[in-house]
Amino acid sequence: MPVADAGTGVLIVGGGPVGLTARALLEQWGVRALLVEKHRELSPFPRSRLVNVRSMEIFRGLGLADRITARAFAPRYGRVRFRDTLGGGDFASAAMVGVHAPVPESPALGVVTSQDRLEPVLLDAADAPVRFGTELVGLTEEADGVVALLADHRTGDERRIRARYVLAADGAHSTVRRLLGIGTAGPGALADVTTVVFDAGLDRWCARQPAGVYFTAHGSFTPLYPEGGWAWFGPTPDGAEATDWAGLVARAVGPGTDVRPVVRRVQHWVMDAFVAERLGHGRILLAGDAAHAVPVIGGLGMNAGVADVHNLCWKLAGVLQGWAGPGLPDTYAPERHPVAHETLRQAVANAQLLRGVQSRRLAQLRTGDTAPDQVELPWTDRYFAQLGLVLGVTYHSAAVLPETSDPPEPSAPGTDYVPTPEPGHRLPHLRLRDGRSTLDAVGAWFTLLTPDPAAWAHGRAVAAPLRVEPLPAEHTEPYGLGPHGALLVRPDGHIAARWPDGSPAATTLAAALSAITGRP
């Protein structure tokens, strides 16, 4: 008979970057959480490579940005390069926008870093309990919670734990998604891929032309850590079990380079591409790769997962702390599901374009064609300018109050980002008088930005946590406000409501928060 544990507010399943970020966010709200991870420790594998500018804004809000940046590569590595072999010269190059250099639209700067450098920072960011070597093997939904069956791989014991909510961040092969019977939509498995982690002296070809990734006709190379280490990844060859991985990597570096790689680790994996048909059921919610597995090209997957839990955790906190109605988490799916589909579309396009470039160039080299300018590259600076997808996400749900009664026009974020102070959009970054970003005024509370705080004093007696932030007069025009107007910003930095000309009634703010949070 399984032993019963004490309950928890939120059970987080999965100890990767998404689950660990959720744990830190919930602790910021004072919500009791327990994280379980079936592996015995954090992953030792590099995996994801990019923390984009939006994720760094989120980590900035958790006080982690400086620690993450200190362990990451310098901004000059925020670039991709295309070569025939690693030892050859570039025939194309593009900067990663928001990583290679600051952008005026954000107070943060993304970084190139390995997942095994990011995860320890996230683990240290909260004190909530973490159980490694513990696997979720069963779920039972009840009216006011979920009972989870957990298996401890070290002792063989099974325990039941009751949680008000389950947040599943347990990866592309999610146990929780399978137990819920939720299917997936999308291309599915795109390719079998192998990653080879190795050591080698490659500075003579890379130190003066740094990059986060070098795409070649013979696979791709990524520097792993500022102090050294490399990874090669590419299609898994036939007869992988007999492959000379050191020789394969040496040939990809280039002929005559005399490189002798020391292979440290080899991992075979599948490049998946799908979105879950639903983002959960009842009190069980999917996030990260459990909700959407996207190809790695472009660095969109992990970052989309971080944005998922940033959207979800404040809503769970609201219900658990009593200032939001039980329906608030229901706005998670209508807000994040469209983003998942658009992220998948962009990431699949990235992967297909890359494979096309590499295949065509390899075919040319095999026929003796050494002129790289004959490759018709689909890559441009605009292609890597993904700020529209990163910063331009727009939410439409009951947790956003539109300014008109007309239904919102569906829109898909593109490569360009145009700051927009309309409800549903991320709050545009501007500087306050004390030098902080307007995004720094956002946290574990709703924020009312107004040039006239006194005019809104009558509406501050509300259940939800709320702070009023004086807005400099010079910012009223870019935010579309008059001298008495206001923006109400959600804890995730998205605008919940806007009153361009001031409060129509003394109850306006309270009524808006009641509608947004679903609390009568």
Structural description of this entry:
Helix 1 runs parallel beside helix 4 and helix 1 packs parallel to helix 8. A hairpin with a 2-residue loop joins strand 14 and strand 15. The chain is 25% helix and 26% strand. The radius of gyration is 24 Å and the shape is globular. It has 520 residues and is α/β, with parallel strands linked by helices.
Task: List key phrases describing it.
520 residues; alpha/beta; 9-stranded mixed beta sheet; 8-stranded mixed beta sheet; 25% helix
Strand content: 25-35%
Helix content: 25-40%
CA-based gyration radius: 24 Å
Overall structural class, as computed from helix and strand content, comes to alpha/beta
Strand tally = 23
How is the biggest beta sheet arranged?
A: 9 strands, mixed
Q: Could you tell me the mean pLDDT?
A: 91
Terminal residue distance: 42 Å
Give the overall silhouette. globular
